[in-house]
Amino acid sequence: MSIRDLSAHLFRSALVVTTIAGGASALTFTGSVPADFTHPDVVANGDNYDVGVPGQAPPLTISGWEVINVVFLLDAANDALHIGLDFHGIAGDADGDGFEGSTDAWLLGNGGVDLPGLMGTESICIALDLDQNGSLDIISGVSAFNNIAGCGVYTWINGGLLPFSFGAPLPGNQGPHMIGPDAEFTISNLSSLVAYTDELCLDYSGFAGSFADDGVGEDFMVGTVCLTTRTGDTADLASGFGLGANYPNPFNPTTSISFEMAETANAELAVYNMAGQKVATLVNGLVGAGSHEVTFDASNLSSGVYFYTLNSGNMVETRKMILTK
To answer: How many Cα atoms are found within 13 Å in the side-chain-facing hemisphere of 108?
Structure first.
């Protein structure tokens, strides 16, 4: 999983996702992806910092439309597919002020509004092509604009931009969803939509955003996942927990940091100055097992020595890097 790397607007990747063992119970949603998707077989696919805000926004503002992880969990025992969109802050908080539906002056001055409760054109949804034949099989989400479990604004489907619509709601049991602070969906009766045994590969397209928040970007997610049992796929599992040396080092102003996760777990990768003050958070949330890489942009920092720390559970590693301008 690539976490919040600053280099791309869209991503497309292939993942291996494992199923819950037989007898597992249905997932309970609370509205928090990191709290709910804790099963060892959850795989998280990191999104990018691809939601822009206008120059009038306060420094370091990140919109609540920013998705930092898309997570999948195949529950074969209950014939269900669970999907979570892990948002930075609160889903639908367009101006990133921590209050969904309360519009800051800078956004109002830019002609936008942060609507409460996914009203107007605010939408969050994900569409699945379960048999990878180029046609969507199901859309799960919420949009007050068209009052359907679909999407009332626009997103990428099969590589093309479709204006104003994510498509009409498609047949199938979409299951419950919960919004706030994250979006969580269950596709139930999965076998009625697609035949699957020990492996299921699917394409997905996701969207979060609104036409009403003029000047704030929408988030687009496009990818491919293969869901299978862990048997025979041990090569896809990480060998351990570790933090790699950043490259280049010294650097100006960007550098790449790699790390390893032995299993899917909550983790934080943060940067500190010599005084021990946190100056940047590069990863904060559910991270999948395996190798990861993130880009750190220090354009707003002064030259000097900095430390970056990976923290997950009772495991912590710290390394030093040097910024030269």
So the answer is: 5
